[in-house]
Design goal:
The protein has eight helices and twelve strands. By secondary structure, the protein is α+β, with helices and mostly antiparallel strands. It is globular and about 55 Å long. It starts with a strand and ends with a helix. The protein binds adenosine monophosphate (AMP) and magnesium ion. Adenosine monophosphate binds near residues 88, 137, 220, 248 and 249.
């Protein structure tokens, strides 16, 4: 996933059992990438993107990620849209970080949206009604974190850090609540806020993460086809990392006010920082700081 993942476990258990669980937890990052990567022409996601107007049976894993992606698309009024793949390719985000190879999908996308992705739970199949390129980059890492977290469920205390997106359970090795820094969006290495949480995920979308060659960055407003520039970072705290990851991207695109409205509607906490470094936090977020 082009990021560094670290896993910490603090538990009174056999070390071998802990290490085996950590191995299985790491395995989910590889598995989610294998199934959900837009950059790998042989991934399940790429094969799905190449087929349209007929139901394609998919794995339960891919089905669940798509299901959540469509729910977030719906609740954000399309600000979050897992069909941004073609627009991302057009902006130069087409390189497999592992092999360095450029990968353009075969599907010649026309105006399409999440509404053209039809899921059928009974047959675990997906129908794409138009040529489009699926992109689960805004949510797949969170999903992998949740699957990894399940492998650690037997231990009281754990933390998964995937490139600054965090999932914690219990407390740290010193018996204190996990303390999580929210990065300053304009001062590398500096923290904007520090919060303490237990049993929660904290995910951030920031404009500093991946600049685009042609200006802008890796988050797109599907409405305009451009990178939004009102918000510079959006952080969401939620019980599940996939939800925090997805809603952070959605809030980023919606902007400070509509983004906060979304977080209220979904019953989660968060912090949205604008270009002028004005901070918009839910009351629950402010209480954790
Ligand atoms: P994140 O860093 O979690 O905000 O995810 C950003 C990634 O999600 C990008 O690299 C794209 O792959 C994808 N993406 C960009 N814009 C959107 C959007 N509006 N809705 C859904 N996914 C997006
Ligand atoms: Mg995200």
């Amino acid at each position: 996933m082009d990021t560094t993942v670290t896993i910490e476990v603090a538990a009174l258990a056999e070390e071998a059992a802990i290490l085996a669980a950590i191995d299985r937890a790491f395995g989910w990052f590889a598995e989610v990438e294998r199934r959900c990567s837009r950059f790998d022409p042989t991934s399940e996601l790429s094969l799905l993107s190449n087929t349209r107007e007929q139901p394609v049976p998919v794995s339960p894993l891919l089905f669940h990620v798509l299901d959540l992606a469509l729910a977030i698309a719906e609740t954000s009024g399309g600000a979050f849209d897992p069909t941004v793949g073609a627009a991302m390719e057009a902006r130069g985000f087409d390189r497999n970080f592992r092999t360095g190879e450029h990968h353009r999908s075969a599907a010649k996308a026309i105006a399409a949206s999440y509404r053209d992705v039809i899921l059928d739970a009974a047959s675990t199949s997906v129908t794409l009604q138009k040529p489009l390129v699926l992109d689960l980059g805004a949510i797949a890492k969170g999903f992998a974190m949740d699957l990894a977290g399940r492998e650690l469920a037997a231990f009281e205390n754990s933390a998964i850090n995937a490139g600054g997106d965090i999932l914690v359970r219990g407390h740290n090795a010193a018996g204190q609540p996990w303390s999580i820094g929210v990065r300053h969006p304009r001062e590398p290495g500096a923290l904007l806020r520090t919060i303490t949480v237990r049993d929660a995920a904290v995910c951030t979308s920031g404009d500093y993460e991946r600049p685009a060659d042609a200006g802008g960055h890796h988050i797109l407003d599907p409405g305009t086809g451009r990178s939004p520039d009102d918000v510079v970072s959006a952080t969401v705290i939620a019980p599940a990392a996939a939800v925090a990851d997805g809603l952070a991207t959605a809030a980023f695109v919606l902007g400070a006010q509509a983004g906060l409205d979304l977080l209220f509607r979904e019953g989660v906490d968060g912090l949205i920082v604008t270009r002028s470094l004005a901070e918009f936090a839910t009351p629950g977020f402010a209480a954790l700081a």
